[in-house]
């Protein structure tokens, strides 16, 4: 009995050590064969039980079975440990319970949304979209528009000049001249596009900005058509409650010229910080096309009349979406831009 127990303790100690330090599932299987298999020393010890005196057999058998159960438990827990370790090694950072990341599908820029909406309103009343180059000649940007090169608007402070006598257009009005040269009246166009000016980049100015030009030319167009068209547009875009104000102004290519204000969207005309207490917000420059421009593009100024207007979609988007700083439109911050994403 003493020998039996000594052998059993030896086997137990050795087996527990070997099973506990198995590094792989293969090692573990070998340990199982070695300590619990048919030829294992423990198995042999169990076979020796009948040789012990009868009264010692039950306790010796119980001891041996305890060792056997201990080996089985150890094998099971070591196997679980090894499998957990190899899972962690394969994908150490992967957490399958994390929710999937939502995909950002992109959104139209707020200025593009405003341009599309404005062009659509004008499309319904017969205006088609036209385009022109952003790199222009002084001839189209100024001279054909009745703006002599010594006019203050051509000053270097306002215009980006390029090598070779070209410039970045300072407004979309040159497209008026380009379209009129190629087309006979009647003309009804809207011209969205980028313009460039040497302006400071501050809360209300950007050196690169969108404009939408409008031009209507035909026989018999009067100031009444001009006013009615602008009023129609303002009511469609800003709502039936909006009112307009035509203020006398000056542009070299329109006569008479006007700046058009819309009643403040925020305070409804009572006066607030957005409209600087005036109750009005300026939305565009406009006027009846100057006969000198018709002459410059080869139209008979006795036969044709028309009106033109130019507005800034970014300024209008500021009003529409209550954006306090124009720079937000041009910084490309997705956190700002995604707010305009369609749902
Ligand atoms: N081109 C002018 C500007 O940039 C706006 C304008 C367009 C005025 C058409 C009159 C007619 O300020």
3D architecture notes:
The two termini are 83 Å apart. This protein has two domains: 2-90; 110-340, BirA Bifunctional Protein, domain 2 (2-Layer Sandwich), CATH 3.30.930.10. Helix 2 runs antiparallel to helix 4 (57-90). With 343 residues, it is α+β, with helices and mostly antiparallel strands. It is built from eleven helices and nine strands. Residues 171, 173, 213, 251, 254, 285-287, 308-310 line the site of phenylalanine (PHE). Phenylalanine (PHE) binds at residues 171, 173, 213, 251, 254, 285-287, 308-310.
Report a brief summary of the structure.
The protein is α+β, with helices and mostly antiparallel strands and about 350 residues long. The chain has helices spanning about 1-20, 25-35, 40-50, 55-90, 110-125, 140, 175-180, 225-240, 290-295, 315-320, 335; strands at about 130, 135, 165-170, 185-195, 210-220, 245-250, 255-265, 280-290, 305-310. The chain is built from eleven helices and nine strands.
Which ligands appear in the coordinates?
A: phenylalanine
CATH architecture of the largest domain: 2-Layer Sandwich
Net shape: rod-shaped
Distance between the termini: 83 Å
> What is the subunit organization of this protein?
single chain
Q: Averaging pLDDT over every residue, what do you get?
A: 91
Give me the strand/helix succession: HHHHHEEHEHEEHEEEHEHH
Q: What is Rg? A: 43 Å
Helix content: 25-40%
The count of strands amounts to 9
CATH T-level topology of the largest domain:
BirA Bifunctional Protein, domain 2
Count of discrete alpha- or pi-helical segments spanning 4 or more residues: 11
Unreliable stretches covering 5 or more consecutive residues? none
CATH uppermost class of the largest domain = Alpha Beta
Helix-and-strand structural type: alpha+beta
Overall number of structural domains? 2
Strand order of the largest sheet: 1-4-5-9-8-7-6
Strand % is 15-25%
- The CATH superfamily of the largest domain is identified as Bira Bifunctional Protein, Domain 2
Q: For the report, how would you describe the main beta sheet?
A: 7 strands, mixed
